[in-house]
Design brief:
about 450 residues; alpha/beta; D-Maltodextrin-Binding Protein, domain 2; 4-stranded mixed beta sheet; 19 helices; globular; SBP
């Protein structure tokens, strides 16, 4: 196929063909003895004292869910006196809602994959990290000068995962250089007789993929303080930039580019729809690569970022406040804290962490450099992330401090988008509702403090 030989081959030639060294951004001395020792595996001696703790992590992506479960299994096999009760299994429920429910019924995990860090830190549910955790990672972000999370993986970019066969059949020979060229590709695919895009609309978190792509393109990349300005009433969702963002989002559906069954399609069904030829593309991150290859080892696919209307490549790639966190209750129990720390050391140990990263196509966060064999698709991701022209932004829900989005607003807005797509009547009135909901959430959160 011409695209494979020209556009993509050109982008890969500067990358090692079979393997590459992945090291955490911002680590200037990752090869030093000090860093290597700090990231060394946990002691080979099994844990002597009997202790138990609970763990919770997001389960929306099957590959990541399995990789997490494998890490827990490997650790408990090596440390039979430490019992880990895996509470994970949120199904299609939003991860934040799942965690809130667990907290409400007294089952808040001891070790948590934390995403809405500021919310739980301000509520006193998670503790500052032990120094032993911080010694493992290269760049743990801070909230009010305190560390609450050890990043599990670097921020993922999202892009188009496409069937090379579908592109060839439609006569697509090159990656788009602008968003208008991307739309032209959708028309080519549609005209060829295949539905261009699948969309996992049944899972609430999946809505964040495209919504945030357009928010970053039109607002957040150019103004990372947009959220705080919205809170102060200085900007509105009915302004030109966010209106353009949601107009672009809506047109993917109204122009027939997204498969019609999106409301009943789960995120974990999108890979099978792609490999079986029901659709030509899906918009997602590198964690899907393993799932696609498992569905069909012979499926030939590629990946590229979707440019904005100016031709810029803007991706979710800025450091964010997410990762492993320890509950305040567990941190106050010396035995639990010690056992959990042993697990965290094991998780980030070179042998185990390499397995995890390879399973999820992850970007490492440890001080110690990690090497694993990367697929051509992952090589393309790394090339984009290493390109100085790539603009790295954050999703609207990833900011913290004054720029934090009211946590209740995100899923509410995703449901609002479902409403206007179902009715087919998107207008500025919906975006004014978004303003009103944001303001109400900010007021409610302030009153609750």
């Amino acid at each position: 196929m011409a695209m494979n030989k020209k556009a993509i081959a050109l982008s890969i030639t500067s990358i090692m063909a079979f393997s590459l060294v992945l090291s955490a951004c911002g680590s200037t001395n990752s090869g030093s003895t000090e860093n290597a020792n700090s990231a060394a595996p946990a002691s080979s001696e099994p844990w002597k004292k009997e202790v138990a703790f609970t763990i919770g992590y997001a389960t929306g992506d099957p590959a990541t869910k399995q990789a997490m479960a494998d890490a827990v299994s490997a650790f408990t096999k090596a440390n039979p006196n430490i019992k880990i009760n895996d509470l994970s299994g949120g199904g299609t429920a939003a991860y934040l809602d799942w965690l809130k429910t667990k907290e409400a019924v007294g089952e808040f995990p001891d070790l948590i994959e934390m995403r809405d860090t500021q919310l739980f830190a301000e509520a006193g549910k998670i503790a500052e990290l032990p120094q032993a955790w911080l010694d493992l990672v290269a760049d743990a972000p801070t909230l009010n000068d305190k560390h609450y999370t050890a990043p599990i993986i670097g921020a993922y970019p999202q892009g188009i995962i496409y069937s090379k066969k579908a592109y060839e059949n439609a006569g697509v020979t090159a990656e788009p250089k602008t968003y208008d060229e991307f739309l032209a590709i959708q028309e080519q695919l549609k005209t060829s007789g295949i539905t261009p895009l699948t969309f996992g609309g049944k899972d609430i978190f999946h809505w964040g993929f495209w919504v945030n792509k357009f928010f970053m393109d039109n607002m957040l990349a150019d103004d990372p303080n947009w959220n705080s300005k919205r809170t102060k009433g200085e900007v509105s969702f009915s302004d030109a930039a966010p209106m353009q963002a949601m107009t672009d989002f809506t047109e993917l559906f109204t122009k027939g580019y997204v498969e019609k069954g999106w409301a009943s399609t789960a995120d974990n069904q999108t890979a099978s729809m792609l490999v079986t030829g029901k659709v030509a593309q899906l918009f997602s991150g590198p964690w899907m690569f393993a799932q696609i290859s498992q569905a069909d080892p012979n499926f030939d696919f590629g990946w590229y970022p979707v440019p904005d209307r100016k031709g810029r490549v803007i991706v979710s790639g800025a450091n964010n406040l997410q990762g492993w966190a320890i509950s305040t209750a567990a941190n106050g129990d010396a035995d639990k804290q010690a056992a959990i720390t042993e697990f965290v050391k094991f998780f980030f140990s070179k042998e185990q962490y390499t397995k995890f990263l390879q399973a999820v196509n992850g970007i490492p966060t440890t001080k110690e450099a990690i090497q694993y064999e990367a697929s051509p698709q992952m090589q393309r991701v790394l090339e984009v992330m290493g390109d100085s022209n790539t603009v790295k932004s954050m999703m609207i829900n990833s900011f913290w401090g004054e720029d934090q989005m009211p946590t209740q607003w995100r899923n509410w807005f995703y449901k609002l988008a479902q409403e206007w797509l179902t009715k087919g009547d998107f207008s500025a009135e919906y975006m004014k509702k978004a303003d009103a909901e944001w303001d109400a959430n900010v007021k409610a959160n302030a009153a609750a403090k």
